[in-house]
């Protein structure tokens, strides 16, 4: 692809494929290299509660696109490990809200720090021009991802 001619359909599909594969590989490596004490899907539930506040298991299941029984198993594990707790819903006593414990908050902060350290270790050897280009790519990827 040159700056003067628009990319062909084949070039755009190749770029889309390469970009998808690169993003998937990085995401998988970051998840697997630096999750402490919980599986990646369990960590995702913790971060959802951390970012969005206490939620019902039904809401968590919908957000993660899993069945309620699957989410119940995940929540049970997180509660058993001391990372989360169930509290009565203030408006509907038939439901519970999943809250984080201090241990859950600590786990999130520790895992994020390890993930950032892992990534930093993999970009530290890049030269200034590569780092500038990577900064631009990161900004563009954030825009493309809808964040």
UniProtKB/TrEMBL annotation:
Superkingdom per UniProt: Bacteria
Gene3D superfamilies: Winged helix-like DNA-binding domain superfamily/Winged helix DNA-binding domain (1.10.10.10)
A GO molecular-function descriptor: DNA-binding transcription factor activity
SMART domains: HTH_MARR
Residues in HTH marR-type domain copies: 12-143
Protein name: MarR family transcriptional regulator
Species annotation: Tessaracoccus defluvii
Pfam families in the cross-refs: MarR (PF01047)
